């Protein structure tokens, strides 16, 4: 008998052929179509953990992002967030991310707790009209979200909020023992920094054409729209978190 020779450290599984790097999370030629709107508390409450607080009309951010290159390759992604308060501080809590790249899904779920799942995401800029159109399918062939954006004005830079917010993920690893508490349950702040690119202010919209419960984000209805922007050919970096919050049973 002899032991194996593989050193197990911080590599993701399979440790002998990690599916993604844990060193950096860099992105190039990133384009983002961002639509923000207000929804009702009752529409989103059932999708948010009980230890996070919500306003009466929570602010929701929905976006389609295209990454021409990154440390996990190229892909398109749909992102849906809602503003919450945890320990007196505001965050954008991630409700759902849909994309078509397994390395990005593994990396996002395992390291950072992003609720990423497979699907098809498209963003069409050349539509023969003044509109940009986006669509999210889950599974492929079944549309669950449609985006529209009419550009109105080119801005000199990305509008900056008065108080910057981080994203927030709930990372859970269920126990393999039936009836046992989760092996891991924690909140992970995230900071995706976008720099450069051209920024366009416009009129954005989002609709949810399907009400199947496998993607319940259709419940997060639009009460009224806030700002919408399109950012073209920017750079991005997902910064490593500096703190993790343990969730107690």
Automatic annotation (TrEMBL):
Gene3D superfamilies: Acetoacetate decarboxylase-like. Coiled coil: none annotated. GO terms for molecular function: lyase activity. This is Acetoacetate decarboxylase. The lineage of its organism: Eukaryota, Fungi, Dikarya, Ascomycota, Pezizomycotina.
């Amino acid at each position: 008998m002899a032991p194996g020779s593989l050193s197990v450290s911080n590599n993701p599984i399979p440790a002998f052929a990690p599916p993604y790097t844990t060193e950096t999370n860099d992105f190039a030629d990133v384009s983002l179509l961002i639509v923000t709107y207000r929804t009702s508390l009752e529409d989103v409450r059932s999708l948010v953990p009980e230890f996070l607080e919500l306003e009466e009309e929570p602010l929701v951010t929905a976006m389609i992002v295209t990454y021409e290159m990154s440390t996990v390759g190229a892909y398109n992604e749909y992102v849906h967030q809602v503003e919450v308060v945890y320990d007196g501080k505001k965050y954008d809590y991630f409700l759902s991310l849909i994309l078509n790249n397994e390395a990005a899904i593994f990396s996002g779920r395992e390291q950072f707790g992003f609720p990423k799942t497979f699907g098809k995401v498209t963003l069409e800029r050349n539509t023969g009209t003044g509109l940009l159109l986006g669509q999210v399918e889950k599974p492929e062939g079944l549309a669950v979200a449609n985006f529209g954006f009419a550009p109105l004005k080119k801005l000199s830079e990305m509008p900056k909020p008065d108080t910057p917010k981080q994203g927030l993920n709930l990372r859970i690893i269920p126990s393999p023992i039936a009836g046992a508490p989760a092996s891991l349950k924690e909140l992970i702040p995230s900071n995706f920094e976008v720099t450069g690119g051209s920024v366009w202010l416009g009129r954005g919209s989002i609709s949810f054409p399907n009400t199947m419960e496998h993607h319940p984000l259709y419940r997060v209805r639009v009460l009224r729209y806030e700002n919408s922007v399109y950012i073209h050919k920017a750079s991005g970096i997902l910064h490593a978190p500096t703190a993790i919050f343990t969730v107690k049973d």
